[in-house]
Amino acid sequence: MALVSLKPASVAFVQTLIEERDINLNLEELSLSEKSPIVGKELRESRIREKFGVLVLAIKRGEESIINPEPVEKLMAGDLLIVCGTAENLTSLEKVAAGE
C-alpha cells in the first residue's frame, strides 16, 4: 500500500499491463539454452532490443538478480531473462533463446 502512495504512476502502469486486455505488452521469463546464438555475447551485442523490440528488464542467474542489466553484461546459458514486449516479438525471441 505504501508503494501506491509513493509511486502512484508506476503502480498504475504495472497494473495496466497486468489487467488491460487491449494493451499488447507482456512480461515474460525466457531461459537461455546453451544452444542459443546469443549465449556468450554481451547484452548490447545480442541486439535483443533492435532485432526483437523486446526490453530486458532483468537477468536471473542462479540466486543473483541483475536488475536493469548494463549493456556489457554477458549472457550465459541458464540465464533467465525477464523481458517485456509484444506477444509476437517475445515468441520470436523465445525461439532464439531456445537455440531453435
Give an overview in words.
The chain is an alpha+beta fold. It has one domain (24-98): Regulator of K+ conductance, C-terminal domain (Alpha-Beta Plaits, 2-Layer Sandwich), CATH 3.30.70.1450. The protein has five helices and four strands. It has helices at 2-6, 8-19, 43-46, 48-52, 87-98, and strands at residues 26-31, 55-61, 64-67, 80-85. Strands 1-4-2-3 form a four-stranded antiparallel beta sheet. A hairpin with a 2-residue loop joins strand 2 and strand 3. It is globular, with a radius of gyration of 15 Å. It starts with a helix and ends with a helix.
Residues in helices, as a percent range: 25-40%
pLDDT average, as an integer?
Answer: 88
* Tally of individual domains: 1
Tell me, what is the CATH class?
A: Alpha Beta
What do we call the CATH topology?
Answer: Alpha-Beta Plaits
Task: Tell the overall outline.
Answer: globular
CATH architecture: 2-Layer Sandwich
* Helix and strand composition category: alpha+beta
> What is the CATH homology-level superfamily?
Regulator of K+ conductance, C-terminal domain
Q: Report the C-alpha radius of gyration, rounded.
A: 15 Å
Strand order of the largest sheet: 1-4-2-3
End-to-end Cα distance, whole Å, is 43 Å
Query: How many helix segments?
Result: 5
**Largest sheet: number of strands, sense, barrel closure:** 4 strands, antiparallel
Percent of residues in beta strands: 15-25%
Protein name: Kef-type K+ transport systems, predicted NAD-binding component
Organism: Pelotomaculum thermopropionicum (strain DSM 13744 / JCM 10971 / SI)
GO molecular function: monoatomic cation transmembrane transporter activity
Pfam families: TrkA_C
